[in-house]
Input
Amino acid sequence: MTHTEEWVEVQDAAKLLSHRSGHTVSADYVRLLAHKGKIRWKPKDGRQNLYLRSDIEEYRVRRNRAKEAA
Output
């Protein structure tokens, strides 16, 4: 990783993913993606994490069709 990488807070990560995916993506889902190793993260302080913007910009979240039908 280089020193010029940008890290964003969870709310900004959710907005970026929502815009890229064309539907709403929650902050909880961003945390789940990080937990599963799909996007990189680092601790900000004792309660919050930061997420690597380049990982978020490369990731696209598909709609859950089963959840929409319910």
